[in-house]
Design a protein that fits this description.
The chain has seven helices and four strands, in the order H-H-E-E-H-H-E-H-E-H-H. By secondary structure, it is mainly alpha-helical.
């Protein structure tokens, strides 16, 4: 029952957020265009509900000459490819704002497990153990406020499983406000890699170039 209400809440809050944040979107778009050449948006193939694929939207944070389809942590020097505007967007997580559109389109929810890259086979398999792949992925979630990039795959999947087992309005509210605290403190952000508290993931959630 809550999942139906949850979808209604997603639509209402996303539309409201899109309207309220439209000036921020405009400022960021101008900043990205002035900082480097290339498209404003970056599209990345991700795993959606029931392991279907969709195109996740982000503000572009890397130069267009970045090696195509190469995860950030596999680049020899990731910092050299990230634009000045990109560093700011990543640090503040503002690069994730276009995913409001993914939520409106029905690809994502505001709260849920972060969508895995299509080739993060180990994470996808681990999430299968907890039925995490059976729900809509989210803009932010329980694992996000518990460590983000620092979490090894098994821990991340376990936390995602906790969310699936205990999904409720109360937990969603806790994740929502917990995200603001994490973003302000930049908790768990590891540039160019994931899983610093344990083994690294085979592919980073961070951006690879879209030419």
């Amino acid at each position: 029952m809550y999942l139906k209400i949850k979808r209604f809440i997603d639509i209402i809050l996303s539309l409201f957020g899109l309207i309220v944040l439209s000036p921020v979107f405009l400022i960021l778009v101008i900043g990205i265009k002035l900082d480097s050449r290339g498209p404003v948006l970056f599209k990345q193939k991700r795993i959606g509900i029931n392991k279907t694929h969709f195109r996740l939207l982000k503000f572009r944070t890397m130069r267009i000459d970045t090696p195509k389809d190469t995860p950030t942590h596999l680049l020899r020097d990731p910092e050299m490819y990230i634009t000045k505007m990109g560093k700011f967007l990543r640090k503040t997580s503002l690069d994730e704002l276009p995913q409001i559109l993914n939520i409106i389109f029905g690809n994502m929810s505001i709260i849920g497990p972060r969508p895995a890259l299509w080739n993060q086979y180990d994470l996808i398999a681990e999430r299968d153990k907890y039925s995490v792949n059976d729900i809509l992925p989210g803009l932010t979630g329980w694992a996000q406020i518990k460590g983000r990039d620092e979490l090894p795959i098994d821990v991340k999947a376990s936390l995602d499983g906790e969310y699936v087992q205990n999904i409720s309005f109360k937990l969603d509210v806790k994740c929502f406000f917990g995200t603001f605290i994490s973003v302000i403190k930049s908790d768990g952000v590891v540039e160019g890699g994931t899983g610093s508290k344990g083994k690294k993931e085979t592919a980073s959630e961070k951006e690879t170039v879209s030419k």
